[in-house]
Amino acid sequence: MLFELKKVSKRFPGVEALSDVDFDLRAGEVHVLFGENGAGKSTLISLISGAEKATSGGMFLRGDSVELGSVHEARQQGINAVFQEFSLVPQLTVEENLFLGSEVTKGSFLDKAEIHRRSVRLLEKLSFPIPLSKRVAYLSRAEQQMVEIAKAFRTEPSILIFDEPTASLTERETDRLFALIGQAKKACVGIIYITHRMGEVRRIGDRITVLRDGRKIATLDAAACSDERLIELMTGRKITQVFPRIKFNPGALFLETRHLTLSSGAARGISLSVRAGEIVGIAGLVGSGKSDTARACFGLEKISSGAVLFLDEDVTGFSPRAMLDRGMFYVPPDRRSEGLMLMRGARENIALPSLSQPCFSGNLFLNRRGETAITRRLAERVDLRPFNLDRELLHYSGGNQQKVMIAKALARDVKLFIFDEPTIGVDVGTRAAIYGFIRDLCEAGAGILLISSDLPEILHLTARVYVMYRGELRAELEGGDIRHDVVLSYFFERDAA
Predict the structure, then answer these.
(1) CB atoms < 10 A from the CB of 300, how many?
(2) Number of C-beta neighbours around residue 386 at 10 A
(3) CA distances for 421 relative to 105, 321, 352, 429, angstroms
(4) For residues 274 and 254, is the Cβ–Cβ distance under 8 A?
């Protein structure tokens, strides 16, 4: 046995995150941790990676008792972790981040030439197309994820921990990561893998440990356990259908772009449309321009030419506030940096984009009674857990933070919703609930623009799909043409040419 936890508990003020959990990891296996947001998965890997200390219980590495006082100590023992929340320094370059804490020196000075050479070799080995001299702050979320993964493979670890590593990656980058994991398994590296995607469990998992409410429910052979059984163990209830049936009823034209080109060059000549009562998807690889196009519609990206029309009005270059006031709402993919104020509670976060509305404020002062009533109703609607409107969102799981993001969008009258990667880092139960919200909004007559790197979302939720490739529209698909093989063929068409 490579690694074991015996009767491990972890208590934080007011909550027991883990209770008497047993866990073991064998050399050369992928052991999947599966559970709802808040089940204790992230706490468990924080203990194994040295980021947290257990309140009680024992930890054993190759049969010997071990105590890890820090992430640095864990790395010295060969334990490397890729956390869902990045540990990168935005002001430093890619290569500086890759060797942060393990700098190569020549005498008393940094050996920048050697750091560069090693960085080039590492990224070539991993096939990650990331500019080494670029500051991390200017990378996309997917590129930042690649840097985090590259850091984990920089040394020769005995244990690798991955926390939702493919949340921002497309299938191509995911395929490359899984190939690297396969190589690590052959080298007898033990791998702990957290995911909410059932397909990934089947594809790379050897064993699965299910956690619920901080307790171990079961450890199972991945090949012998059905999806339905896994979901039931995870949630304690049956979820018969993750993707809902949606009745599309396309109506008035809400959003239209005409030959839209961005100043950044990320998207060029984009013409698309979204009608009331339909869900339109944009699919594409990382860097295809799909998110940039949606952000431009909401006023977050500068437009060099072309036009954006919303509700028959030319809104090209309008600010996000102007778009919000006209009935468009954008839900960003990065809830921590763009979507939420983590040091504030759910009440303030839900109300923030709607404070100018009469139900939230009077002429001079906030309507606290109205604000509390509305935010309470919305928090109940999205099933916020624990239900505490003033608890800092920093202390909520990723899935519950995402529920607050959805509640923000429901707090005002919105004609068109733009959901940009709406299920990043959320469990199957929360994912199904978010899909239910999207269905209800669509069937109530809203227009939905869905940007997603999770291809099953595109395939199961949309009435029409635009596929982008390197800043250009390659196809518009609908009906029976929205198939896995067809969509992917446009992802890679130029590479194959």
Answers:
(1) 16
(2) 11
(3) 41, 21, 21, 17
(4) yes
The encoded tokens of residue 200 equal: 């990934």
Is the confidence at residue 236, as pLDDT, over 90? no
pTM score of the predicted model: 0.69
What pLDDT band is residue 239 in, cutting at 50, 70 and 90? Answer: low
The arrangement of strands across the sheet holding 30-34 comes to 79-82, 159-163, 190-194, 30-34, 207-212, 215-221
Residue type, 397: S
Residue 348: both structure tokens together: 């303030």
Give CATH superfamily name and number for 253-496.
P-loop containing nucleotide triphosphate hydrolases (3.40.50.300)
Cα separations in angstroms, 357 against 179, 191, 377: 51, 50, 17
**Nearest residue to 203 via CA among 177, 228, 229:** 177
Class of domain 3-235: alpha beta
- pLDDT band at 492; cut points 50, 70, 90: low
Could you tell me the two tokens for 494? 């130029």
Tokens of 18: 């883990």
In sequence order, what are the residues at sequence separation of 6 or more whose Cβ sits closer than 8 angstroms to the Cβ of residue 360? 351, 354, 366, 367, 370, 371, 374
Provide the residue ranges of all domains of the chain, joining segments of one domain with +. Answer: 3-235, 253-496
First to last CA, the chain: 48
pLDDT at residue 13 above 70?
Answer: yes
Rounded Cα distance between 414 and 458, Å, is 22
